[in-house]
Write a structure and sequence with these properties.
There is one protein chain. The protein is an alpha/beta fold. The chain is built from 22 helices and 14 strands. It has helices at about 10-15, 65-75, 95-105, 120-150, 160-170, 190-200, 230-260, 265-270, 275-285, 305, 315-325, 355-365, 370, 395-405, 425-430, 435-445, 445-455, 460-470, 475-480, 485-500, 505-520, 525-535, and strands at about 20-25, 35-40, 55, 80-85, 110, 170-175, 180-185, 205-215, 215-225, 295-300, 330-335, 340-345, 380-385, 415-420. A five-stranded mixed beta sheet has the order 1-5-4-3-2. Helix 5 runs antiparallel to helix 7 (about 230-260) and helix 11 packs antiparallel against helix 12. It is elongated. It holds the Pfam family PucR. It comes from Bacillus seohaeanensis.
């Protein structure tokens, strides 16, 4: 290690004020770090220490062995660095029970055989500790500034790893998620395997820091030294290194995403069904093992709501969403079109749960820090049909387009829709292209609407809730917040206007379908909005 900024018990024993001191027990603990010096002349200390304090005492309160033993156990439990005690003033000898306990816990006991002013010891050691802290902060600042400068021109993240290696003279290990372990400086296969095993065992000679991107662990960096346990300074350097790695990797991902956007003509041709099986296989083999791809699906995200926001960079949004989709088992290809962003999601896991995984990804994107800002726009994804044959990916794109079109008439508070979940909406849209479904629905319910306009009878609302409750009068009254007698009166009036058989199987299906079509084609929040507009 080049500079560890540690003051140990061993270091303190070499200082001038300890010329006439000697260690009588706990020799194995001389490498304990000392963070402060504390004078103790009381019998209860456990609530006064934070750990790594060197304790000074004349022993005036510890003349009884049981009292001394009680205090000594407290010092061990609190993680003190060691005990320095003045002999022949109040205590002439250290009890054997204390010596035995000190050896057992490698807890240094140092005795002064000549009187030394404790104020001189505390001033000397505290000054040294403060100077070390100042030097440590200066070194950290220098390291951080130098690292930031390197980020401007380095071409490989290994340059960052080498810089940490040179700074501390330690072995640096780095592992991107789902990649093999890299070691700086390079080692033989045998030693690399040994380091990998030590990493998994979380040895005391290994310290690690995670490299986090988009709120997820992207990689992990380690440092190793066979003869040293790392302290605060080394861990702070490691933390700054992992931050620099995160910045570099994010920059590389950003540049890579920009290049993908510039080379999207091929993807556009594939979405239009103009590529052959051979060209698709060749293209995919360059980005992923084609044999591991197990079908795919196309999703569309509104481009306008992304570009309208000054606080949301489109490329950064793609990076975040790409990372989330990849975590759910998809290889992600993006096509940035004029008014929308299109994702080709190639499945590399089993097909049985693709929809659940894609739903989880949509939810994660919605809850990401990127979109939590109140000034960021809402986003919407429309998912097409899943295709096992990648030659038919254009069909998934077509159905994603249809889903996106239907979305404009649906509840826009939703974050995503799947084509396969919109059976009834698709059927209504198909019929509406052949017949004026809006006029048909309005004519069918005209008597109810007119009655509601004239009397505020709430028949239309009552009919909808009654059908949703599967004809349960008790549940309907509860949801409408009315008494049962009022409900009976309304249902009687509905029978007069629609017919006594309105709950018969055939007629009920018709009414429910027309209700669905009416609300979908009108797209009101409730019937009152429609009534106001008609009036």
């Amino acid at each position: 290690m080049k500079q560890n900024f540690h003051l140990t018990v061993k270091d303190i024993l070499s200082r001038k004020n300890f010329e006439h001191a000697r260690i009588i027990a706990g020799n194995k603990g001389v490498n304990r770090p000392v963070k402060w010096v504390h004078v103790v002349e009381v019998t209860t200390i456990k609530n006064l220490l934070n750990g790594n304090e060197l304790i000074l005492s004349t022993g005036v309160a510890w003349k009884k062995e049981e009292t001394f033993l009680s205090l000594f156990k407290q010092l061990i439990d609190c993680g003190a660095a060691g005990l320095c005690i003045e002999i022949r003033t109040n205590i002439t000898t250290i009890p054997d029970s204390i010596i035995e306990l000190a050896e057992k816990h490698s807890f240094p006991i140092i005795v002064f055989e000549q009187e030394v002013p404790f104020v001189c010891i505390t001033q000397d050691i505290h000054a040294s500790l403060i100077n070390q802290q100042y030097e440590m902060i200066s070194n950290l600042e220098r390291y951080g500034q130098s690292l930031n400068k390197k980020l401007l021109h380095i071409e490989n993240y290994k340059d960052i790893l080498r810089y940490l290696h040179e700074e501390l003279n330690v072995t640096v290990l780095f592992q991107l998620k789902d990649h093999s372990l890299e070691v700086v400086p390079g080692v033989t296969g045998k030693n690399k395997k040994l380091l990998s095993e030590l990493k998994e065992e979380k040895s005391k000679q290994i310290a690690s820091s995670k490299v986090v991107l988009f709120g997820q662990e992207y990689a992990e960096v380690f440092m190793y030294h066979p003869d040293y346990s790392f302290g605060e300074y080394e861990l702070l350097l490691l933390d700054r290194t992992s931050t620099a790695l995160a910045q570099y990797l994010l920059r590389e991902l950003y540049v890579s995403e920009k290049k993908r956007a510039e080379n999207s003509k091929w993807l556009s041709s594939w979405l239009q069904g103009k590529q052959t099986a051979e060209t698709i296989s060749t293209y995919l083999s360059k980005i992923n093992s084609a044999s591991s791809i197990n079908g795919g699906v196309v999703c569309i995200c509104s481009h306008e709501i992304l570009t309208e926001s000054e606080n949301l960079d489109l490329t950064y949004f793609i990076l975040v969403s790409r990372n989330i989709f990849e975590q759910q088992g998809f290889v992600v290809l993006t096509e940035n079109q004029k008014d929308r962003l299109t994702y080709i999601l190639l499945n590399i896991r089993r097909t049985s749960d693709w929809k659940e995984r894609l739903t989880a990804a949509f939810e994660r994107i919605k809850e990401s820090e990127l979109l939590k800002s109140k000034t960021s726009p809402a986003i919407f994804f429309s998912a097409g049909t899943f295709q096992n044959d990648l030659m038919r990916i254009h069909q998934s794109y077509e159905t994603a387009e249809q889903t996106f079109s239907l979305y404009k008439k649906l509840n826009k508070e939703e974050t995503y829709y799947f084509y396969e979940d919109l059976h009834l909406y698709r059927f209504i849209s198909l019929l509406d292209s052949q017949v004026d479904m809006q006029e048909t629905a309005e004519n069918f319910f005209s008597s109810l609407i007119q009655y509601d306009q004239q009397t505020s009878g709430h028949l239309f609302e009552t009919l909808e809730v009654y059908l949703n409750c599967h004809g349960s009068k008790k549940e309907t009254a509860k949801k409408l917040f009315i008494v049962r007698q009022t409900l009976y009166h309304r249902l009687k009036k509905i029978e007069e206007l629609l017919g006594e058989d309105f709950m018969s199987p055939e007629k009920r299906v018709t009414i429910e379908f027309l209700l669905f079509a009416y609300k979908y084609l009108q797209n009101p929040n409730d019937v009152k909005e429609y009534q106001t507009r008609k009036a």
